[in-house]
Amino acid sequence: MLRDIRAAVLLSLALLSPVLGAGSAAAQPAGPGFPGAPNIPGGDYGVSMRSAADLALPDQYQRDELFFRWPAGRTLGSISAIAMDRDGRSVWVAERCGGQSHCIGNHVDPVVKFDADGKVVRQFGADMIVYPHGIFIDHENNVWVADLQSNVDRPAPRPGQPAAAVAGLKPNGAQVLKFSPEGKLLLTLGTPGVYGNDTTHLSQPSAVLVTRAGTIFVADAHDSEPSNHRIVKYDRTGKFIKSWDACGSAPAPGANKIDCAHALAMDSQGRLFVANRGSNRIEIFDQEGNLLDEWYQFGKPSGLAIDADDRLYAVDTQSGVRESNAFVRGMHVGSARTGAVTSFTPDPLGNPAPWFPLRGTTGSEGVTVGQDGTVYTSQVTPPGMVRYLPKPD
Question: Of 132, 199, 223, 214, nearest to 172 (Cα)?
């Protein structure tokens, strides 16, 4: 029943996209091309500057909105955190407890595991996580969650959202948590509920990644204050090693250093890929923080994944008529080795027009890929999870 209702809602929203005017994918005119270089003058390019090369990309995936079966009687909330189990077939998510912004006061398990058939097989984490944003499954199948916000130092509520009550709460959040596959808490990074930018604090941690050797990288840089703009490196025990600026080269004119590390991925060479959503690009670092490259051809990346064959998947939730870039929302797929883009799957809602903003974000924010090439994405607005199957040749 819930699956049928959600599918009907998503379908009805998708049917609206042709009437969204210049903001819809169908209405994108070809422009003179986007050179893929930083600091381009001329103001807001909107969507009319989408390059001929990007327009010509094939869509190699078919969308399946009915694969995941959400627990009966539980409200589906926003999900930016999605990751593949080490079996290559099961999927983990960290969900915001039925809401869009936090789990405060909602005593449900935000960490949920689905089996290869889309059925829930495990849940844990109730009252331990404030604002799940990123999730990573390490080589021992431990579950790492980036808990973005504090439950006591609350940001101003979004329009239409009530402020969270903080009286009497035990400080929590603004941390990274490591769980066993069964849900036992094994390690925490950061100081519960307290923001900072030193060796023992985090502020708006959005993503975490752990190498096979156990080195831990945290993207400590989301898009609301107080926010850092750094990558933090720890050893396998959680001991601080170093941190560096996540934003790469200087931001474009008028931009600031915020939201420049929204997601993390690593290729077969051990290079760290960072989704610099704030400046419409991907930063590539070595594991000591040296900037190796910057790629502008994958849109305004919110989520990243790299598979065993070094295919790079980048999902874009913020391109649109209000953004100074040349893309529409959706998923770009290409090579992590060369940067060549080979496929683009548009968001079914297109780019929201100013009169239909969808809270400023829509579509897939998290992305992961199975061993058979099936792609799974998670959504913040409208909340949901989607399976993308490769189209037959």
Answer: 132
